């Protein structure tokens, strides 16, 4: 008998859209993530010596930041176990907009934040899908996504339509460009086994893509 899911799923006390922020991630996925050793060792409040974005950002930079042409940590991969764990923690802590902007900064020319950008974009799409298309927050997110539509940096990734926990699939690792990730996030309803809720503000990004194709 498997005891993989014996721990009750933790729900964050932070609220968004009148519910716990954790609920954007399905129960089964939450249970799996909270029982992964990486989460227990690195993302539990005791391990982090706190439970704040400040501590989490240090870990994100350590495990998903790269120096130009040299990886700090060879284990990082989009859609993998570690990525899902950090994404779950980001959801649970619900960073402020200022904190998200800090994570997207590219002030150091020797530092490549492409994996961190991918993490934040995925977080925004999963957590804020429900925003009305003309709300100020929705337009802020649209502008962030627009910035990366023309970003062609390469990253290692589990295939976007695969769940690394799926027992019926052989997990495929491939190269994904940032613009491909953006296109997937705004046009599909699932990524790496996580649902992408029906999103009104994505229509603005789809319209921009259509306009660009017409001009070509």
Question: Mind describing the biggest β-sheet?
Answer: 3 strands, antiparallel
Count structural domains. Answer: 1
Q: Considering DSSP H and I runs of 4 or more, what fraction of the residues is helical?
A: 40-55%
Order of H and E elements? EEHHHHEEHHEHHEEHEEH
Average pLDDT score: 86
Estimate the strand proportion: 5-15%
Keywords: mRNA processing, mRNA splicing, Nucleus, Spliceosome
InterPro entries: PRP38
Organism: Torulaspora globosa
Protein name: Pre-mRNA-splicing factor 38
What key phrases describe this protein's structure?
mainly alpha; disordered N terminus; 216 residues; 48% helix
How is this structure best described in words?
With 216 residues, the chain is mainly alpha-helical. It contains ten helices and nine strands. The longest helix has 14 residues, at 114-127. It is globular. It starts with 14 loop residues before the first strand and ends with a helix. The model is unreliable at 1-7 (pLDDT under 50). It comes from Torulaspora globosa. It is found in: Nucleus. One of its GO terms (cellular component) is spliceosomal complex. Required for pre-mRNA splicing.
Short structural summary:
One of its GO terms (biological process) is mRNA splicing, via spliceosome. It comes from Torulaspora globosa. With 216 residues, the chain is mainly α.
Describe the secondary structure blueprint for this structure.
Blueprint: E1 15-16, E2 19-20, H1 27-34, H2 37-42, H3 45-48, H4 53-64, E3 66-67, E4 70-71, H5 81-93, H6 97-104, E5 111-112, H7 114-127, H8 136-149, E6 154-158, E7 173-177, H9 178-187, E8 190-191, E9 194-195, H10 202-215
Antiparallel strand pairs: 1-2, 3-4, 3-5, 6-7, 8-9
